[in-house]
Amino acid sequence: MRRVLRIYRRSLGAHLRAVLEYEADFWILVVAGLLFQVLNLVFLSAVFAHVPALNGWSYPEAVLLAGTFGFINGLGPLFFEGTWRLARRINHGELDYPLVRPVNVPVQVISGGIGMHGFGDVVGGGAMIGWGLANAGIEWTPVKIVGGLVMLVSSATILLSLIVIGNAVSFWVGGPHPVFAMTLIRTADMAKYPITIYGVAVRAAFTVLVPYAFISFFPATWVLDKEHSWIGLLTPLMAAYCVWLARTVFRAGLRRYDSAGH
Amino acid sequence: MKPYLGLLRMSARRVLAYRMSSVILWIGGATFLAGSLAVWHALLADGDIGGYDWDRMKAYLLVGWATGALGSAYGDWWMANRILDGHVATDLTKPLDYQWARFSEHMGGLATEFIAIAVAATAVMALTDGLPLPGPGQALLFVLSFLMVAPLKFAIAYITTMVCFWTQNFMGVSWAKDAIVTLFSGALIPLALLPAWLAGPASVLPFASITATPAAIFLEQATGWEALRLLAVQAAWVVALWWGARLIWRRALRALTVHGG
């Protein structure tokens, strides 16, 4: 395990150095990531200038929710960007290279790139979390601080697992673009608002079928002591399940890989 | 004319060759539309916001989504990658006008989009008890303004991809463009609801012609001379950006570096 982590760190570090060579590109990506968080904030502030609450969520609470989602979303490009290149590698038969190296294949795939727009998302989302927490009138207890942190880690684990699962589906779908993963992760965007605004079918699907609601909604309801907040406590369990599922799907896909002929 | 039609046909075929990808992308687009409908349904539950009730907002969101979807799937990444790969060098050797050639390809890429937009419009009408529809004259103006969105979005995308002559990566540029267009076109939220410091620039930038103009005509907020004025502004932007792109192109060519061959 230590060896795997070390290789992950070194591979990611190599990509980071490569990206930093192009300074203009780096800044454009960071600003682009930040702009999207600003967009979320503009939307919420424009809307809340006209209404006091969105389905029982006040402005600071909604900012906290959207910020959490943005923050966790930014971790994908920063730490799992290589996963998005899996479809292309399968399509071009380039997965042969990781397969013949004496290192765990998923680690080589996951650390195969770094997206600096994640940096903008993390900074923008983080600022929104900070502002939301300070203004939502939360009564802090030690349990809440520890629980909140555990949930943040669990939520991140869930989203990163979904990225792996979505991209591993490329083993079956084919084509050079990870369209399934793009759709899977884009749909997650719906979870940046309180999921109570959606119909029963969507709520059920987001809780049980694809656990988008555990990425930001249930953890936030727990921290804010809202209705059904106990479901937030299931987040770590859901995270463990997602990790297991991602591992299983990736392995099954890898067994199916048949290169592309050169 | 003939080679350009050939390019148009080829790019339409390319879209149709990756049917599965298109379908999955459209499902993604549909969930986005459903999401924004749900958000606004909840927001409007307690009454109007800035003159928009649920019926009008539904129509606004549908027009906004459709204008956003037009030409978004292919075009710009295709153009950007040719510049980044250096393939643009072979394009330059062809006896075609580069901008017209890319425009033809862009229009060919719209092949599936009108179908998808029709499907989405039908679904919204069926699932949310209809839409307020404009009268026949107004509908004609709306169609004109909607069709003008295609060349307008092409010009903006074309100018954006030319940034690739100076940078090595298109993703950040494309996202920054998307963010700016989403905000200032009115696709994020109707421009009337924006705070004044954002509504001001939005009214003088070309992006309002992408979403705000077709939506205002569809919702009959702009009728008669006002509608014609908005159409004229749209047309003026198409022409201005088209010729502006030519100027930038001339400069960009000087920055072109292609390694190896």
Automatic annotation (TrEMBL), chain A:
<keyword id="KW-0812">Transmembrane</keyword>
<feature type="transmembrane region" description="Helical">
    <location>
        <begin position="62"/>
        <end position="80"/>
    </location>
</feature>
<feature type="transmembrane region" description="Helical">
    <location>
        <begin position="26"/>
        <end position="50"/>
    </location>
</feature>
<protein>
    <submittedName>
        <fullName>ABC transporter permease</fullName>
    </submittedName>
</protein>
<feature type="transmembrane region" description="Helical">
    <location>
        <begin position="118"/>
        <end position="138"/>
    </location>
</feature>
<feature type="transmembrane region" description="Helical">
    <location>
        <begin position="195"/>
        <end position="218"/>
    </location>
</feature>
<keyword id="KW-0472">Membrane</keyword>
<dbReference type="Pfam" id="PF06182">
    <property type="entry name" value="ABC2_membrane_6"/>
</dbReference>
<feature type="transmembrane region" description="Helical">
    <location>
        <begin position="150"/>
        <end position="174"/>
    </location>
</feature>
<dbReference type="InterPro" id="IPR010390">
    <property type="entry name" value="ABC-2_transporter-like"/>
</dbReference>
<feature type="transmembrane region" description="Helical">
    <location>
        <begin position="230"/>
        <end position="250"/>
    </location>
</feature>
<keyword id="KW-1133">Transmembrane helix</keyword>
Automatic annotation (TrEMBL), chain B:
<feature type="transmembrane region" description="Helical">
    <location>
        <begin position="179"/>
        <end position="199"/>
    </location>
</feature>
<feature type="transmembrane region" description="Helical">
    <location>
        <begin position="21"/>
        <end position="45"/>
    </location>
</feature>
<feature type="transmembrane region" description="Helical">
    <location>
        <begin position="227"/>
        <end position="245"/>
    </location>
</feature>
<protein>
    <submittedName>
        <fullName>ABC transporter permease</fullName>
    </submittedName>
</protein>
<feature type="transmembrane region" description="Helical">
    <location>
        <begin position="57"/>
        <end position="75"/>
    </location>
</feature>
<keyword id="KW-0472">Membrane</keyword>
<dbReference type="Pfam" id="PF06182">
    <property type="entry name" value="ABC2_membrane_6"/>
</dbReference>
<dbReference type="InterPro" id="IPR010390">
    <property type="entry name" value="ABC-2_transporter-like"/>
</dbReference>
<feature type="transmembrane region" description="Helical">
    <location>
        <begin position="107"/>
        <end position="127"/>
    </location>
</feature>
<keyword id="KW-1133">Transmembrane helix</keyword>
<feature type="transmembrane region" description="Helical">
    <location>
        <begin position="139"/>
        <end position="167"/>
    </location>
</feature>
<keyword id="KW-0812">Transmembrane</keyword>
